Queue: 2 jobs
Job 1
Amino acid sequence: MKIDGTHYRSLWWNAERDVLEIIDQRWLPHDFRVIPVATMQDFADAIYEMRVRGAPLIGATAAYGMALAMREDPSDANMDAAWTFLEKTRPTAINLRWALDRCRAALRPLPQGERATAAHALAAEIADEDVEINRRIGAHGLEIIREIAAKKPAGEPVRLLTHCNAGWLATVDWGTATSPMYQAHEAGIPLHVWVDETRPRNQGALTAWELGSHGVPHTYITDNAGGHLMQHGLVDMVITGTDRTTRQGDVCNKIGTYLKALAARDNGVPFYVALPSPTIDWTVGDGVAEIPIEERNAREVTHIQGVTDEGGIGHVRVTPEGTEGGNPAFDVTPHRLVTGLITERGVCDASEEGLSGLFPEHAQAAE
Ligand SMILES: CSC[C@@H](O)[C@@H](O)C(=O)COP(=O)(O)O
């Protein structure tokens, strides 16, 4: 997507410098910094410290990490070591393991001399596929927005609410939850997006930055405002991303998503989840019982980052000194609260039947 008129992906291979480059998201929306990811430690740090973030982008980054590992030492032992080293960086988003598994399965049968080139090509393929998957999610989601728009008086905006950043920054391009928004905006459908701030990391500020760059009208709101807005008829549709969706359609996403789904159900607001198929974990049924929830550093809760009056980026503590913080980073929304899953192959019910109907090949393989 575009920043000041220039098209960017969230990561790209710089052939001249022979290195992967990423947008370092820790500084957004205040500062746009591009950094190289040149060593295996850089890759692990980039994922753990959320220089890159969002389930699909974490997966694509890990694939490039595997490519670097194969360049350094294409042995089976190093392939397994790289898998383990990268996989432990973040536990919840399944795209990380999905990408590493896909790389290992493709590279293992190859002679060692071919692995570096093949791994690099595969990482680029995974990145390109992500772009196309998200473009298609947008096309299917656009139709839902179009239907809602058709029932409103002409010119009245469709009011969407989103949580976290499931935007192009969280993927390689387009975003998942934002792709329908961008495509609806391009199609001339008037929109207004309520953007949850998404404490503690304030990914909503990334979403606001993205939407602003594309001219999509939006308002940044506190995480606690959504229920109130829904009660007053100010939200037509909720659309979020997902970090892992189980085969029965339970959705694990950024902490606070579950509360939005509860409020949506209580107020009869449709709650959709944009779901690229690599984010489905076919091995898991009950998301609440089985998905590991990342517990992040308490400092992310007790402190907050922003721009100081002097213009620098700094942190301030919001709690009394010594107060303990708790920081579960994700929660699970049970499938019964999800109106539909918007995938690259179309929209389905959040159920085993719905998902296996769209992806029969995966469902059979997981049996
Ligand atoms: C298309 S991104 C979907 C999810 O990955 C997104 O909603 C989310 O929860 C991201 O969490 P983050 O902790 O910022 O990596």
Note: The mean pLDDT is 97.
Job 2
Amino acid sequence: MEKTITLLPGDGIGPEVVTEATRVLDKIGIEFGHKFNYQTAAIGGTAVDQFEDPLPKETLDLCRESDAILLGAVGGPKWDSYPAHLRPEKGLLRIRKELQLFSNLRPVSIYNSLVSESTIKEEVVRGIDLLIVRELTGGLYFGEPSERLDVDGEEAAVDTLSYKRSEIERIVRMAFELAEVRGGKVMSVDKANVLESSRLWRQIANEIAEEFPNVTLEHMLVDNAAMQLIRNPRQFDVLVTENLFGDILSDEASMISGSLGLLPSASLSAEGPGIYEPIHGSAPDIAGKGLANPLATIASVAMMLKYAFKMELESEAIMDAINQALDSGVRTADLVYGNQEAVSTTEMTDTVLHYITKSTK
Ligand SMILES: NC(=O)c1ccc[n+]([C@@H]2O[C@H](COP(=O)([O-])OP(=O)(O)OC[C@H]3O[C@@H](n4cnc5c(N)ncnc54)[C@H](O)[C@@H]3O)[C@@H](O)[C@H]2O)c1
Ligand SMILES: CC(C)[C@H](C(=O)O)[C@@H](O)C(=O)O
Ligand SMILES: [Mg+2]
């Protein structure tokens, strides 16, 4: 097969991890006889510097006409004081909205050899396999008004948490469809004891549940969910939640797998190309030092192969290779506690590449 992939390296460690992920794609291409064509475009702070726009039109056009998009990360201290529309993060929010990527899948599992190294007890994390389904184009990130204002002569600011029925229906339905082919359980996470938007969310989740007799639905308040994720993550199969709750819970959940540098994601729409992106950010503290863990981005490529190209075997070959690389003992710095030696970003990828073969399946 021949596929065109738009690369959006972005800022900080973004370019480093995207480069590593394309090496993995190239190896898959060789082993399985596919051709991956890349086109690279600017997003985030890099795009602000070049085009005074965190999402130039040319970038969006390239993305629209590609088969899939691979994003590194955006943002960094350099742009933190820029006005809202020129912030790197705005570029990411805009592209998610433009491409209607309402569904962000953030799977959380643990590689075999990391079970005993987790900061959480082995018996709590062993065999973890849960999926966070994060709503990605609504809620506080996009609600209007979102602005500074004057309240009683005082400086104030407002952000708006609003959801339409259709927005809730489609993401909750997606969660149920995924649960049907997984463990058959949906946990809808909200703050219905306080927020009206959460009460609508809960009501609609109950309605959607009627369409899926083989899937059980439970509700959990988000503060409790944050605690339960660490106390007993095995109770969860699919968690579905609004944009900001999903953002926070997924960073927390990454520590069940061992590091923020391990968690991949797929941002999907009803039709058209999706963005495959690690859940982590641009990590300015380690950028340019060869310290970044490339595995979240490499696993995002595995999600791309599975969801965008229906290349199940190829996707599994990558996940198997990551498992074997970690089994062989290599660790990037984020995975090292104590005095074990860490390998570089490139060395980690080299080890993954070593284990990628068609015959692994
Ligand atoms: N999707 C994205 O583009 C995205 C996501 C989150 C944050 N950001 C942006 O990134 C910038 C930094 O934010 P932050 O520091 O809060 O979050 P971050 O995710 O960039 O980093 C948090 C911590 O995790 C570490 N880390 C992250 N990814 C890693 C990796 N692959 N390997 C090893 N360690 C890794 C970092 O070194 C840092 O200590 C901000 O500008 C923020 O807006 C972007
Ligand atoms: C950079 C930021 C806008 C983004 C988000 O909050 O969605 C990031 O944290 C993520 O998780 O992808
Ligand atoms: Mg985040």
Note: The chain has a mean pLDDT of 97.
